[in-house]
Amino acid sequence: MGNQTEFNGLLLIDKHSDITSFGIISRLRALTGIKKIGHCGTLDPFATGLLPVLFGRYTKLARYLEAVDKTYQVKMVLGSATNTMDLTGEITHRSDPDQLSQRINSDELAQTLQEIIKNEFMGEIEQLPPMYSAVKVAGQPLYKYARQGKVVERKPRMVTIYQADLSPIYMEDQEWVCEARIRCSKGTYIRTLVHDLGKQAECFAYVKSLRRLECGNLSLGENSYQLNALFALFAELKEDQALLRQEIETKYFFPIKHALDEIPTYSLNQDQAQKVIYGQPLQLTNLNPLSSAATFQLLYNDKLLAIVSFDPTESEFIKYERVLADRI
């Protein structure tokens, strides 16, 4: 199996539908033989798209990659609401179909939706987590209460909507649908946004499909991979896990320092790098370009060794937040 502790990396998975985010991790563990794997930012089982996955020591970086803005492409059905706020739930409310068609054909509903998005949902807003979510209350996920038919008190949270571009309304599979590209802060529930939009527009709405396009500066594209492609590669390599890990490490991992582009970098010399891997006190100079209290990456020969913080008002020495290497 080799030295698994040295299998450290970031893999951009294009998640397929009808699988949980943890299900992706379970399959990657079986595929690679690596146990220390974690994902950044849970996607609902029906949702697809970008799921950043960290291996080995890089699982320590999850909080940096999770606390970023996200971009989604959502398709919503107009005229109905469900108890889960998405296509997996049971319909709880319906609009009058003739009235809905009249509002759409006259373009009144499209204008109403645009006005509500612009005036009520842009910027910082308050959201109530949906009952069908993994948010925990008294140590139990909300969806477990919901499955028991219980509605429990939830604390609203503040989120930010930066962009919400709506498409024209059109008919698909005998349903009126509308699409939107939404850029938002961490912790935003797109299902809640769509549900609340439909409620305020008095037409009802639920999410039919949801695809995450971006997490911070990470995006779907040539650097993201579907799980079935990795399983196909595994078969080509005659199910040799060591060979598979080698292929992933050399061809599939996304450069971690580029994933953390928002965190400034500082390049070390060899003596400084040795101190970092042993967690020894380290004094740095020429930090003027950084903010007065900064988090930044320490690199040696372009390899990320640690995430550290530095506050020159208190000390000239760095504080280690995450050390990611034990050798240079």
Describe this structure in words.
The chain is 28% helix and 32% strand. The chain is of the alpha+beta class. It has 3 domains: 4-67 and 218-258, Alpha-Beta Plaits (2-Layer Sandwich); 70-215, Pseudouridine synthase (2-Layer Sandwich); 263-323, Archaeosine Trna-guanine Transglycosylase, Chain: A, domain 4 (Roll). The chain has helices spanning 21-32, 62-66, 97-105, 108-121, 142-147, 190-200, 227-236, 241-252, 256-259, 270-277; strands spanning 9-15, 37-39, 48-55, 70-78, 80-82, 91-94, 123-127, 136-137, 140-141, 157-166, 170-172, 175-184, 205-215, 218-219, 224-225, 265-267, 294-300, 303-310, 319-323. The strands form 4 sheets. Strands 1, 2, 3, 4, 7, 10, 11, 12, 13, 14 and 15 form an 11-stranded mixed sheet that branches. The protein has a 4-stranded mixed sheet with strand order 16-17-18-19, with helices on one face.
Produce the secondary structure layout.
Layout: E1 9-15, H1 21-32, E2 37-39, E3 48-55, H2 62-66, E4 70-78, E5 80-82, E6 91-94, H3 97-105, H4 108-121, E7 123-127, E8 136-137, E9 140-141, H5 142-147, E10 157-166, E11 170-172, E12 175-184, H6 190-200, E13 205-215, E14 218-219, E15 224-225, H7 227-236, H8 241-252, H9 256-259, E16 265-267, H10 270-277, E17 294-300, E18 303-310, E19 319-323
Parallel strand pairs: 1-15, 3-13, 16-17
Antiparallel strand pairs: 1-3, 2-3, 4-12, 4-13, 5-6, 7-10, 8-9, 10-12, 11-12, 13-14, 17-18, 18-19
Question: What is the fourth-level CATH superfamily of the largest domain?
Answer: Pseudouridine synthase
CATH fold type of the largest domain:
Pseudouridine synthase
Radius of gyration: 23 Å
- Report the strand count: 19
Name the helicity range.
25-40%
- Sheet with most strands: 11 strands, mixed
- Count the DSSP helices: 10
Shape: globular
CATH top level label of the largest domain: Alpha Beta
Termini gap:
22 Å
Enumerate the spans where pLDDT stays under 50 for 5 or more consecutive residues. 1-5
Number of separate structural domains: 3
Query: Would you tell me the structural class of the helices and strands?
Result: alpha+beta
**Secondary-structure element string:** EHEEHEEEHHEEEHEEEHEEEHHHEHEEE
